């Protein structure tokens, strides 16, 4: 199992990844794309993993919803490309 310190580290990496995706999308003034949705999905998933160890139900629910929305965006982008 993951210890609390490692979970915090994973959570911080997830937060940085989400912020990178958000900054990339915002500074480009663009609609979400595969890269930004991928970063959002990865970051939210990492944060959710850290919240399983350092349990916080509201934050965990938020990150799971964030990951689900990003995953929907990824699926839509991939489907449009086909």
TrEMBL record:
Keywords: Membrane, Transmembrane, Transmembrane helix. The chain crosses the membrane at residues 6-27, 34-53, 59-79. It comes from the Bacteria. Pfam families: CBU_0592. Residues 7-81 form the CBU-0592-like domain. The keyword Metal-binding does not apply. This is CBU-0592-like domain-containing protein.
